[in-house]
Amino acid sequence: MPQPLSSAHADASVSTQTRDELSVATAVRAALSAGVSVNMRTMRVYLVGGAVRDRLLGVRVRERDWVVVGATPEELVRLGYEPVGREFPVFLHPVTHEEYALARQERKVGPGYRGFTTQFAPGVTLEEDLRRRDLTINAMAEDENGALIDPYGGTADLAARRLRHVSEAFVEDPVRILRVARFAARFAGLGFRVADETLALMRRIVDAGEARTLVPERVWQETERALAEAHPEVFFETLRACGALAVIFPEIDALFGVPQPPRWHPEIDTGLHVMLALKYAAAHGAPVVVRFAVLTHDLGKAQTPKADWPSHHRHEEFGVPLIAELCERLKAPNTHRELAILTARQHTLVHRALELKPATVLTLLEKCDAFRRPERFAELLLACEADARGRTGREDAPYPQARYLGQALAAAAGVLLSESERRGLEGAEIGEEIRRRRLDAVAALKARATPR
Ligand code: ATP
Ligand code: MG
């Protein structure tokens, strides 16, 4: 990696630079062409975090984070950096707008993830800054000549596919539980696993009651990102393995140990089923909103009295208030809540689509508001497909229900009343006539789909 403050730096946005930006860039480059002396100190800039990790892993670098050693906030401002950090001294580069943080140390002074004091003196070294980071694979740096600085064994852990904490200070921030679980979800496909000793520290954080101090916004932010990863099920499995699931998502934790009928669910355990369904949804590229619906579709099964196991009468409705509460608590977006509740309510009926009478199919479409929200209806069908196939041995089972209901919607939505047909009808009669024709259309489809 060449000198970060010169050529490599500007390349990201060369084509969009304005004349002003270019002149600032030139000034910055002139000032910082090598490590500059500022007040007898030498300011150095290092590439850190995910970009170093991802380049060594050979995966796409998403964004670049930088650390500045040997400078003060005032000096960075003078060089044209824009201060943006509310709690920490973080700056945006005048040209690339990438994030530059002053090297800092952290000390735990109170509970929770805000219970820190931060020290960022120009004397803080790179190694000190790297030491406060979560995982060894995230605690490597690259200097301006491209040389790797790896004081905590990140390269070895990359090779060993190990997510390992940097130091005992790991336990000071409960957000790291979420981050590690998220990285486990991201890199599971490459063979990464959380190191046993790191999982033990995560459990220690939970046992100390610190997971309860996580603010809902942060939990949701990390969860949403985790849901988007290649193996979102690993996020929840990791949280469960350290005991955090019971604190953060008690509704999901409660599904583990709840049996279902082996005839429909060879995997039996409801928690396991939900993980398989989530895995299926992610493997088939389902959007996050669908993955969330899959995650929550069976929450009601934890409400079934034990005496009724393994059947789960009315679990569909029982799940609805649990989903509403979970979304309220985490401040999940409305789109997520709506699809999740719809999926919880309707998934059993969707699975039975081929047995339903045309009138029931039409009522289902209406209840789903499918005529006005066809995209959401398609998302519901995808969530139901993940539910059906997220079962041991059923991963490739046919799911004709989705296609059938899609066709039913298309047929019913295609019904028209001409101007002249309308003319002879009063207000409400128009709606009734449309509904009658929609019913005929669904019945005709059913006759074609299931010939005698
Ligand atoms: P991504 O590819 O998702 O950007 P990243 O590793 O760069 O992954 P960021 O959230 O961008 O993650 O954070 C940048 C770096 O800051 C991390 O690599 C890690 O070293 C450090 N970091 C971020 N949050 C924490 C935290 N809560 N505790 C310790 N270190 C952290
Ligand atoms: Mg990053």
Overview of this protein structure:
The strands form three sheets. Strands 1, 2, 3, 4, 5, 6, 9 and 10 form an eight-stranded mixed beta sheet that branches. With 452 residues, the chain is of the alpha+beta class. Helix 15 runs antiparallel to helix 16. It is built from 21 helices and twelve strands. The longest helix is centred in the C-terminal third of the chain and has 23 residues, at 427-449. Strand 5 (90-92) and strand 6 form a beta hairpin. Residues 49-50, 63, 65 line the site of magnesium ion.
Quick tags:
single chain; 452 residues; alpha+beta; 8-stranded mixed β-sheet; two-stranded antiparallel sheet; 50% helix; 9% strand; binds adenosine-5'-triphosphate; binds magnesium ion
In one word, what is the shape? elongated
What about the largest sheet?
8 strands, mixed
Instruction: Please count the beta strands (DSSP E, at least 2 residues each).
Output: 12
Indicate the percent of residues in helices.
40-55%
Range of strand content:
5-15%
Q: Overall mean pLDDT score?
A: 89
